[in-house]
Amino acid sequence: MKIAFHGAARAVTGSKHLITLKNNTQILLDCGLFQGMGDLTDDLNESFGFDPSLVSYFVLSHAHIDHCGLLPRLVAEGFKGNIYCTPATMDLARILMMDSAKIQTQDAEYANRKKRQDESPEFPLYTEKDVIQTLSQIKVVNYNEDFQIDANVTLNLTDAGHIVGSAAVHLKISEEGKTTNLTFSGDVGRYGDLLLKSPQSFPQADYVIMESTYGDSLHQDLEPIENTLKEIIHQTCIIKKGKVIIPAFSVGRTQELLYALNAMELKNILPDVQYYVDSPLSLQATEVLRSHPEVYNNGVKEVMKVDKDIFGFKGLKFIESVEESKALNSDPRPCVIISSSGMAEGGRVKHHIRNNISDQKNTILMVGYAEPRSLAGKLLAGQPKVWLFGQEYEVVADVRSIRSMSAHGDYEDLLQFLSGQDPNQIKRIFLVHGEYKVQQIFAGHLNDKGFHNVAIPEYHQEFEL
Q1: Both 198 and 244 in a single domain?
Q2: By CB neighbour count within 10 A (0-12 exposed, 13-18 middle, 19+ buried), where does 50 fall?
Q3: Any idea what the CATH number is for the domain that residue 195 is in?
Q4: pLDDT, tens digit (0-9, with 9 covering 90-100), for 146-197
């Protein structure tokens, strides 16, 4: 058996891990879009590094675009097998992939209008037609259900607590009379998350593919989030009469923000200003989360006894049309704008940042991980000037962050995720989905816990198991 790492290798995007059995059965775990990688991004998304038509089965850990965003291209290039994921992941992946196809088509059409006749045309990575075909190949698998993929492979998914529907993937593989248990963590959530249940324990594995996004960090206690939001909104909107711009992923982070703001209203500490969610995708994602209450933790279920709409509060409005979005930029009144994308690399939030970045009364608030080369990453790093839409802008607005809102577990959460495993029975742990320096630090934490055979794969590197 072999495993090759074709994405999220010493990087935090583009997740793709390909298992090849001795009988040439191929199982691909995730097929994510590369994002925020600067000039490398387009080239990385153009080529898989393997032949999609040879992939037998596909398992999707969760619906974030850096895990599912290239799946329709995989299908377009010849993958015809089944796609396995949880019901909630299917619901989310549908809206995210359709949105991605629409954006790519629009971007290609715009680029082609700007090209000379002698220049090669631009094409989207995939179309809405490819997404529809992809959806037809999905087979849903419930949590904690042993699902026989074929005579030699059994799949089991456990709740990873990262976003709605997110799963850790467990494969029991039989080859030549030998059984191998392989676990892929997907993205691991927080223990004590605002909304979701904590990650589940799982059976003993022989090999673990482990995410490591915050392998060097400890998040602050979750409790001060409401106080921090109150302080930033009050200072910006009430005192300075400015705007708070929050780049937030449509799935997960936006709903956490809405839940926290709703909790502030229940406690009568929510500043009295207008709140906008400027992302049609966020509205759809919020509806998906509303339709899957089984993922909520006990604390949320208690709140629901007194408040049926945990994502709604006074002053909240979802913006759908482009015209309404543009109108926010010309409206001088103080407000809070939550908009995608989370790394500020595209989407409506980039326009809001451009229109507010050079005014000291405004605040740009980061609430999650940002790839260092992304616009959000550059702002977090304190760069005094940034480029937006071909023009350089001076960063005058206040730039703040709430790192504790991450849907990714910190290194203590990651170690807790592995705490049910006997280190002596694990033959090797492969660290993925992390920056190389962070992964080296996390490897040290693993060694301290007795996990000594830790590998940090390079892009396209293959290992014999």
Answers
A1: no
A2: middle
A3: 3.60.15.10
A4: 999 999 999 999 999 999 999 999 999 999 999 999 999 999 999 988 899 9
The token pair that represents 130 in the structure block: 């490819």
What value, to the nearest 5°, has the Cα angle with vertex 411 and ends 406 and 413?
70
Q: Alpha-carbon dihedral of residues 75, 81, 86, 87, nearest 10 degrees?
A: 70
Q: Beta-carbon neighbour count of residue 34 at 10 Å?
A: 23
Pairing mode, strands 153-159 and 147-150: antiparallel
Residues in CB range of 322: below 8 A, 6 or more apart: none
Find out whether 69 and 346 touch, Cβ atoms under 8 Å: no
pLDDT (tens digit, 9 = 90+) per residue, 359-371?
A: 999 999 999 778 8
If pLDDT is split at 50, 70 and 90, which confidence band does 373 have? confident
For residues 291 and 285, give the distance between their C-alpha atoms in angstroms, rounded to a whole number: 10
Backbone angles phi, psi at 292, to 5 degrees: -130, 65
Structural domain boundaries, residue 201: 2-217+407-464
Residue-wise DSSP of 137-206: TEEE--TT--EEEETTEEEEEEE-SSSTT-EEEEEEEEETTEEEEEEE--S---TT-SSBPPPPP----S
Burial of 91 (0-12, 13-18, 19+ CB in 10 A): buried
Instruction: Tell me if 51 sits within 8 A of 84, measured CB to CB.
Output: no
Q: What are phi and psi of 265, to 5 degrees?
A: -65, -40
Answer for the pair 376, 343: CB distance below 8 angstroms, yes or no. yes
Contact 188, 161 (CB under 8 A): yes
Paired strand residues for 181: 172
| Number of C-beta neighbours around residue 253 at 10 A | 24
Note whether 75 and 13 are same-domain residues: yes
Same domain? 359 vs 387:
yes
Helices (H), 213-291: 225-233, 253-266, 280-290
